[in-house]
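dumping this here before i forget
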Amino acid sequence: MDYGAIADSEVDVNPETSPSEPASRLVGFAYYWSVVTVFARNSLIRDMTFRANFVMECISSVAWTLMNVGFYLLIFSHANSIGESTGWGKYEFFVFMATMWIVNSLVETFFMPNAEEFSELIRTGGLDFALLKPIDTQFLISFRRMDWSSLSNLVMAIILLAISLWELTHREVNPLRLHFSILFLYPLYVLCGVVILYSLTIALSATSIWLGRNQTLYDFWFYITNFSRYPMEIYQRGWGMSLWGVFTFIIPVLVVVNVPARLLAQPLHPRAWWEWPLAGFTLLATAVSLMASRWVFQKALMSYRSASS
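structure:
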């Protein structure tokens, strides 16, 4: 990716000419948005340069989603729900799984490729050039490359979500009734989930500055986020309670999918007293995670030594 693309005259912002602070913020937002579109266009051009590879990646992603659906259809041919009295029947769980794919596909499209390459920027000296650009370094590192083939999972997730909601709202017994507020709440908590996973990703990648190389990032990412792939009820028994506590309140990956999926599968009908407080905690966890990742990234940059030094 060419870092010089963001410093060219295509995007010309002079904060001193801004008439007021609100107008300056608006111009700043427009500047950052224009940078994102430049990165998005360049990434798409790169992907289309190798179209056969792009198509194969999309096909493999679609095949993976179909195999997952087939696997859980097999499971639900032997059981009516995930656990007893959890409320996660077949289509409720498919709502959960579709939500997981939506969150993960957005993270894998916009953030994961950059996090994986961060250690290489440090090793090759590319971070030196990023630090010289007239833009926030964390923003530049986070968005400079996008993997558009990962959006194939998003398409499959939307299809699965639509089918599952249709089945839930048209079943004969206790049909699901969607409240209009869910049109706001569901995207909000999906966005919260994306921000929490992004915060975890950028914090892990920032450790490359201290470690020199962190090639195990994706493996560790998979180990941590694997806990978010299932309803949290399965952890609320025996020694699983310790996992539930750690991955809900310390590393809040369990709320990433559970909260938006729960709101959509059973909107405005919490099964326990703690569900709405958990939704409120998710908003707090999102803000704290973002601030903590920002602190880790800035702290790591203070320890960075130029590759040329």
